UniProtKB/TrEMBL annotation:
The keyword rRNA-binding does not apply. This is Ligase. Keywords: Membrane, Transmembrane, Transmembrane helix. The chain crosses the membrane at residues 6-26, 33-51, 57-80, 111-134, 159-178, 198-217, 237-258, 270-288, 294-315, 327-346, 430-455, 464-489, 509-529. The keyword Signal does not apply. It comes from the Bacteria.
Amino acid sequence: MEPVPGTHFFPSFLLQFSFGFFPQLYQRKWGRIFTALGVFTFLRLPFLSGLPMVGSYQLVGLFLGSILGIWTRETILVLLGRNETALPKQSEQILTDWMIRNPTGKSILPIWYSTYFGFVFFLFVLTLLCLLQYQGLGLVTGLGIQEYLYFPSLSSREAMGLSCKILIPISLVVLYLFSEERSMPTPSKDSLSEQLRFGIFLGFGINLFVMTIQSIWSLEFFSEGTLESVKAGRTTGLLQDSGSASWILPVLSSLWITKLITNWRKSKERFSLILAILSFLFVTWLGLKQGKAFWVVWTISSAIGIIHLTTDLWIISITKKRITRVVLYLILPILGFCALYGLSFLKKDWDLVELSKRFMVALPVWKQNPYLALQRMDLMRTELLTICLEGIKNNLWLGNGIGSFPLALLDPFRIGTKTSMEMIDFPPNFYLWVIHDLGFLGLFVFLFFIGIFLWERGLWKQSLLLILPFLFGVQIQNSDGAFLCFYLVLLGEKGSGYSPSFDKLRKTIWFSPLLLILSVGLPLNYALFYSQRYWDLGIGSEYRKIQLKEYQSAATIPPRSPNFEYEFHGKVWEWKLSEFGSARSGRIFLETTDKSPVVEVLFLNSDRTTLKQELFAESKYGYVWSGECPKGASFLRLKSRSKLEFRLPRSQFDGSNRIQF
């Protein structure tokens, strides 16, 4: 949906694809490690290689390579008879070793009974609804993707591309984890979660190393493609930007330190305790070059962790331990206020100090004017919050469509708050994004699947790590954030369901069919209700006419200075004919350097029945037709045997975008 030149796309794509495909083909274990490592190190590879490739294509190559590697490996192993005993013949030693490295499971649930199945189906439904919303019904171009100007300055393909920025990372990550779990032997000695965690921590360590160099030496070190992060004086490592680093850094650091503390408490080995303390101090130092979200997530997470650790070590009685924790939780806001008050007097150029100053400025007006207080805290996010709430109010139950918020910022016809920033962003936090894009009914379906995953895997405590980060943005909009979020939610310590209550119900005869009915029925019902808004959009040149107050020109690129020409790509186009008699006869010249065996023009009546059909004549600079519209013709359709890219001047269309000769 986002056109990228092949010279920019293929070098990065093929490198990412190879990094995911070949390790997966070699062994399940190394495939997982390399994929997780690539997620946190390859995201801005196109920028670092000098070939910029932005948007939804960030890690498409890596995930497609990993998914295809899994499917290829498992298919070959089944065809070779992996379920049979492989004899280690000398002539087949390499093949035998490969089969031993990738053992099969004893039993596995049918694919439609997997908890992933419903979630993948829901994402498919959202993708289909997104396609219909931004591309219209393909009655003109058949099964092809039709291109129109969704807004006067934005094509439908670009509008779809904005939604793909969040739809593609989510879909590819979920499909990858689904493929990994389906190919995992059950029971298994090697843990899917542990191997992915090893790759994550390996990539995280590389990012810490790069952040250290950026903090000590120069922010410009490996910083291409981080948008405004460098200008704001923030380190990003190899992550997407400072927005990703500000929550991924404290979350992964918390996981790492928790693991070290757990090892220390089990083995009483002081090295783990010393390493945990040094890690805490090191991450806190790196936080000086991070955004405000880091300090909120890091301080609250650290405070909660310290409270739990100290009460576990010093208080034996469970009742006293719980009372002490509640009291300390109540004291935390007071300590936080005192800390912010003291930091507001510092003369340092740190985001933490800036956060403290803004908090102190906003606090006095909070009771009288909360909106003004929010503006003083963060003007940009206040505007995003207001626009998001307006969008929620307009489509409370069904939402505005997945990925629709960036498009709302570009909508020239939207009535409401206008943003003063140039950057196109998502809602200020994850929870508002879900309601804005999916509505309360979509939120219910989304939470249903997440709840099933958490119940099956018993990961309620682990998922708490996302509550705070989700308050500071839509953390699944980038591939690194989406991968970490779904890893925390979808994977347990052994990579599959081990919740006793869920496992007990899974073995009953009625539970799995009921879960399948809900997994398919809920998305279908949501799609049925949501699709009702498409009936008045129209087709062809009448697509969105009621909303835009004009007919569609079916152009891919709008007219721009200095030539003011529409640019058209594809094989089939349709235009509404002008109603003025003087404008219904004359000449149409398609300016192009492309060649097609046949280019024809069709005149249709109001029922889109063909009244007249003629061929374009080839000329030196394109194709030309001259003649007169037949009586009763309402639409003009142009067809090309081969894909064509041509231009028409803005003067070829009247004020309502109807074609004239």
